[in-house]
Each structure stands twice: as structure tokens, then as C-alpha cells.
Write a structure and sequence with these properties.
With 109 residues, this protein is an all-beta fold. The protein has no helices and 8 strands. The radius of gyration is 16 Å and the shape is elongated.
Length: 109
């Protein structure tokens, strides 16, 4: 299953010093909430992306805890004020402690 999971980022490549930029992200993940039954009537175990951590130049920016009400293939958007050029890194973790990361550089002029 983990081969099918792909994080995506939409990040501006350039910004002015002090500018607030919008970051958009989506991760493809089946997101089983633990309430659905399979064909045999057994509960399908919960398996969701339960956290997303964001850092900019290795400094923490956002630490989100996600709950079972989130949809499959969750899309999240947030804003970030950039003061210097750097690398934005997002890491998603699921209930099996599997992690996926994506990075993007922002050049500040």
C-alpha cells in the first residue's frame, strides 16, 4: 500500500521578504476510519494519516494532529510568512507509523 501513497506540494518558488505565501498539500492515502466493515462483516482497522509536521529551514512551523473524520486523500492549505530563502519540508505519518515527506525550496528576493 505504501507504494501508492504520494505526497504533493504546491509552493511558490519565489517570494518577497516578509511575504505571506499559501502552501497547499495533498497526500494520496486510503484513510480507513475504523468504522467500515469488509465483505465478511469484520471491522476494517483504522488506518489514517494522523499527523503532519512542517518545518522551514529545519525550524518547526506547524504540527497538525489529524483525526478519523478527515477524508481520504486529505488536502490541507495554510499560510507561511517567509523572511529568508529556504527549504519547506512536510512529513505525514499514519497509524502504522509509516512516514512520507516532501520538500520544496522558496527563494526570497
Amino acid at each position: 500500500m505504501s507504494d501508492d501513497i504520494k505526497p504533493r506540494l504546491r509552493v511558490p518558488t519565489t517570494a518577497k521578504k516578509g511575504e505571506v505565501v499559501e502552501i497547499k498539500t495533498l497526500i494520496t492515502h486510503p484513510m480507513e476510519n475504523g468504522q467500515r466493515k469488509d465483505a465478511d462483516g469484520k471491522i476494517v482497522p483504522r488506518l489514517i494519516v494522523n499527523s503532519m509536521k512542517v518545518s522551514y529551514n529545519d525550524k518547526p512551523v506547524l504540527d497538525a494532529k489529524l483525526e478519523q473524520a478527515i477524508a481520504a486523500n486529505p488536502f490541507l492549505s495554510f499560510f507561511l510568512r517567509v523572511e529568508e530563502s529556504g527549504t519547506l519540508k512536510l512529513t505525514w505519518t499514519d497509524d502504522k507509523n509509516q512516514s512520507w515527506s516532501a520538500e520544496s525550496k522558496i527563494e526570497v528576493a
